[in-house]
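Run: sequence + uridine-5'-diphosphate-glucose -> complex structure.
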Amino acid sequence: MVKICCIGAGYVGGPTMAVIALKCPKVEVVVVDISVPRITAWNSDTLPIYEPGLDDVVKQCRGKNLFFSTDVEKHVAEADIIFVSVNTPTKTRGLGAGKAADLTYWESAARMIADVSKSDKIVVEKSTVPVKTAEAIEKILTHNSKGINYQILSNPEFLAEGTAIQDLFHPDRVLIGGRETPGGQKAIQALKSVYAEWVPEDRIITTNLWSAELSKLAANAFLAQRISSVNAMSALCEATGADVAEVSHAIGKDSRIGPKFLNASVGFGGSCFQKDILNLVYICECNGLPEVATYWKQVIKVNDYQKTRFVNRVVASMFNTVSGKKIAVLGFAFKKDTGDTRETPAIDVCKGLLGDNARLSIYDPQVNEDQMQRDLTMNKFDWDHPIHLQPMSPTSVKQVSMVWDAYTAAKDAHGICILTEWDEFKTLDFQKIFDNMQKPAFVFDGRNIVDADKLREIGFIVYSIGKPLDPWLKDMPAVA
Ligand SMILES: NC(=O)c1ccc[n+]([C@@H]2O[C@H](COP(=O)([O-])OP(=O)(O)OC[C@H]3O[C@@H](n4cnc5c(N)ncnc54)[C@H](O)[C@@H]3O)[C@@H](O)[C@H]2O)c1
Ligand SMILES: O=c1ccn([C@@H]2O[C@H](COP(=O)(O)OP(=O)(O)O[C@H]3O[C@H](CO)[C@@H](O)[C@H](O)[C@H]3O)[C@@H](O)[C@H]2O)c(=O)[nH]1
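>> structure
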């Protein structure tokens, strides 16, 4: 029986391994982690992450051919194939701080593999890593290899949160990079045969190591660039009276452009886009390509601009101050169908409003108060370290309260900011909400999910990203 061990039981390690176990009943899969609470949760009825369909997959395999354990060394030693899916945060200090990937966790995993291995291993990079990481890992593993043969493969993950299980069941492609040696090609075939249990052959792409590593960074950069492009257009739409949804529809009909990933928003969030682009920028700089670095940096700058623009709109519309005013924040997760708040635009928007002394009442169906408070007090990039190594919040933000429904959040509020596109926000009783708010009552829709015309009929002043401006907003220009 082939034995797979995955180091890192997070958003990637957990769901990917659960799907491999489900689709390959003859393979034994053990997911290991240094975080005891995480592993305890994976072994309980309340999994550590919320992901539609995940519970069902885990329940079908756990205890049969899928196991979660903190006994990292034992399972690594026994495995034939080791996936490494640990954190690769942005460095916060030292060389490359604020840009380069921090490979501390990757390196410690590699050193541990080298220490405990007694048989040949295929080591798979599942984490997103800088180009040429495989070379560094190879050096660590082979430095004192005791005659053990290691083959390193790059097999980046392309799942998106909220749709992870569907993405894993039906991937657009699986990418496997390896050495162009007979040993490297054999390892590629071994991993390919695992995926081939459910992924059509023509969707499994094999490349050299560096192409696979770079393709992951490139894919995220292209995706994020689309969002920054449409968000940049949204600012121009507001200035000219064009409607960004109509523009997206019109350009998306061009088959060369395509309709996906053209939704204007308050900004992209999530643990990957910003981190991976910063990493790409750093790699470009290190390779003497400052123009290329500047090009990609702009994607992040526009994203930051979009969040600031949103905050300025809120404050400017409400007579240039939100001091002491209650603002309801609907949605805190970085997108719907996940409880993940890593780099969510809600953090910057809330901080911006708090900077103008607002009182915030936040509701998100999947995020608890402790998480929100941590996010609003944590330093940038600290969130991307294993949970037990993150600093505790010394204080909580007093002007923030968390409630468990949208109606309570909006009661007596002056304005509502919609920051995540949860389906339940589309069907709220806005008449009831309006009746219980201060007047004039504002809705700032950062996801373009409400029917602005209907809300205006009720009496709201509505701001929708990239849509023709309400006359009220035209008279209140948002100047920073
Ligand atoms: N989240 C996504 O949607 C996504 C998608 C594709 C790729 N990625 C990449 O995958 C990697 C992991 O991301 P994630 O979202 O799963 O992170 P995560 O924080 O959810 O999980 C990482 C896990 O690794 C564990 N860990 C760290 N060092 C360890 C060690 N030495 N030994 C054992 N366990 C260790 C941590 O405790 C944590 O549970 C990152 O490189 C990320 O960029 C993430
Ligand atoms: O048209 C769009 C599409 C997305 N977003 C936002 O962009 C962010 C990222 O969304 P999405 O890409 O769907 O989720 P992630 O889970 O971050 O997935 C991305 O990052 C992963 C980690 O690397 C990759 O594996 C995935 O392929 C890639 O889509 C979220 O805040 C979305 O709200 C928009 O604002 N407009």
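>> summary
Residues 7-13, 33-35, 38, 72, 85-88, 105, 108-109, 127-128, 157, 159, 161, 271-272, 386 surround nicotinamide-adenine-dinucleotide (ligand 1) (CB under 6 Å). Residues 3-199 form a domain with the Rossmann fold fold (CATH 3.40.50.720).
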